[in-house]
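Board work, copied verbatim: cytokinin dehydrogenase
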Amino acid sequence: MTFAICTLIIAVGPSELLRIGAIDVDGHFTFKPSDLASVSSDFGMLKSPEEPLAVLHPSSAEDVARLIRTAYGSATAFPVSARGHGHSINGQASTGRNGVVVEMSHRNIGTPEPLVEPEEMYVDVWGGELWVDVLKKTLEHGLAPKSWTDYLYLSVGGTLSNAGISGQAFHHGPQISNVLELDVVTGRGEVMRCSEEENTRLFHGVLGGLGQFGIITRARISLEPAPQRVRWIRVLYSSFEVFTEDQEYLISMHGQSKFDYVEGFVIVDEGLVNNWRSSFFSPRNPVKISSVSSNGSVLYCLEITKNYHESESDTVDQEVEILMKKLNFIPTSVFTTDLQYVDFLDRVHKAELKLRSKNLWEVPHPWLNLFVPKSRISDFDKGVFKGILGNKTSGPILIYPMNKDKWDERSSAVTPDEEVFYLVALLRSALSDGEETQKLEYLKDQNRRILEFCEQAKINVKQYLPHHATQEEWVAHYGDKWDQFRSMKAEFDPRHILATGQKIFQNPSLALFRPSSSSSSASW
Ligand code: FAD
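↓ predict structure ↓
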């Protein structure tokens, strides 16, 4: 504690220390080394851990506001970053050594519980709430949010700062398209309520805003009646063109009779072809694997679901059969399972527990997520899936299309300039003792080559969960939205206090601490 306070004095000066020490919060500040260490790294594990000076465990929006007002009024404007559940890849929720991390997901006495309004079909949630807990609470009322991420142990504020996407996005839009109202603490320390009707600019700017304009302390999320069960189907394709044609057909369907979730993944790995009957594939579904053998080439798996109520269990088979008739997958490759809605939504957590038991969860994750315009997805397939990747992938590669008209152009999220675009998510894990193709440097180099290939082939991809090294790259990322983004920063966080880990704008106190030899000092 004494050491931490001394460091704080050196870093931000004695007057700032006195101010921080004097902040009266309902939650609490912690300087304990174990607490500082616990927020110093993230899921990506790509950077050396950097401990902040202090961590705030807030109980209310006012706690967050008091801290930010102190930072805003201090000589150095020390950085303040919200940390959701620390599932970023490149240190986006960190502040560096001289900042204060606000641990939003830490439960304190007084942190508001989700409040469901069944009549109005919405839930009010604390910004640090995990989606899994939002789901549990809303299910008590037979309701659920409409749009999801594949994994539920992410925070509401964290995913709304990006977009929040999964196989429902083609129909409901990303999670940021399903928010009715927010409470936000701006970089000036003001608590502002915003919505489509009130403080509209801030509302849209914060959604997908990478934490640049304020810390979300409350979100009002739109709900729908929760389905009870899910018919979950996977089918295979050997032709990329037929696979994408079917995916695009499925996301173009309107009306009641359609699938509720459309995703897919790429199988480039020989090992995966032989072992891909993972826990999903039940013994009730024997498959003649020889009939879908890839002969060393790439296979594509379409993943779809139909949600239903138990009272509809007599008709769901027929409905699924009719929908499937329009698709052109390999006929012998149909895998079906049926499970509770909550078990489907929470499916990735099961994989997490398995990986944790084998010590394979807390390893570096050089993930790369790209939005690829529909007009170039076939070139991407040839250059990346059938080219750069070779036949070893070190993790799942998701691919699924979305409709741009379900995204609000006024939000800060950036997508390609086409009506339909694909998410390609290369979700790889690096192993220090694995084969060469599983090593971190190998995977990072592959990512670099993929981005280089897109640039040379003029495939206008946009990074999702973006990570850029220079401001020039950020300006290119935002394109037409850059001027608006920059002017909102000037209005809502003029001293560049917030979410400095995104490395879009430079915080003055970080400049003080940057070694003069640092090659990145000129870049942001
Ligand atoms: P953090 O990583 O802690 O924070 C992310 C950024 O948001 C930081 O800049 C932080 O400062 C800022 N921030 C956090 N909280 C707030 C707040 N309350 N107000 C303002 N800014 C805030 N994403 C998808 O869209 N779809 C998926 O299917 C999906 N699956 C995933 C599966 C796994 C296993 C993992 C690890 C990640 C997945 N993600 C997915 C990515 C996820 O959306 C991002 O990691 C995101 O950052 C949310 O994580 P978090 O809540 O831990 O936020």
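Confidence is low (pLDDT under 50) at residues 1-10, 273-290, 513-524.
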